[in-house]
Predict the 3D structure of the following.
Amino acid sequence: MEKKKKLLTIGQFAALHGINKKTLMWYDEIGLFCPAAVHPENGYRYYSYYQSSILETILLLRELDVSVDEIQTFMKNRSAASLEQLLREQIENLDQKMAHLKAVRKTLAQHRQNMTTLLTMDLSKISVISKNERHLVTVDIDRDTSFDKQVEMITAETRKYQLRRLHDASYGTMIDTESLYNGNYQDYSKLFIEIPFPVKKTGLHVQPAGNYVRAFYQDAGENAVLCYKRIFEYAAANGLTLSGFSYEMILNENVIDRAEDALVQIEIPISDST
């Protein structure tokens, strides 16, 4: 107990809390956090051990980017109620930041996976893969929907879900397999957007879990047609029935300058009845 009654020099107190003593001097100058005592002759500042919890609260709030003005207001009206309200607000802010960082991480992981695919896969090969269920935001389009209109609709949807930027989400196009079986390889009916954080599932498109045929093509109309023909030949040769929608997504748009260099991934569900 005697040690706790002893006053600490500014250097000792700063070292105790892992900060620079200039920070303590500045806090004193602006009236945010003052020493317990000041030597009347030399002006040296001294701090009490019992001031530690107050300083740690200030340092925590500063770490959470609470402004000095807000902290000063709190310090002038410090109470259990005001601290509870301030901490509740900061917890809500922190939860939002954490959710955003998780979303960013998911987006980065998706981009990294795309790059790994580009670097390691035989892109001329058609394969069967397993996928988990996904819930996608979709926008209806048709042959007459211009590219500018598509961009406008995607942008509107991303804003609706409070995404900061378009590329915070993964997106692509969808074609009904019935259209593909009928040879309508350009009959896109939807744009899809995968929001990188949980959203209410009402009204979302469910991309089912299960096995998918996956293939790739260079972004040109004739290449898409040839790729789909190869996919159906592969499915027929292996006794597979394709169902639902084909999901197309550009893998390399982060590393290209020309649209004709885009590498498109196709994934189509395999019917459970096969």
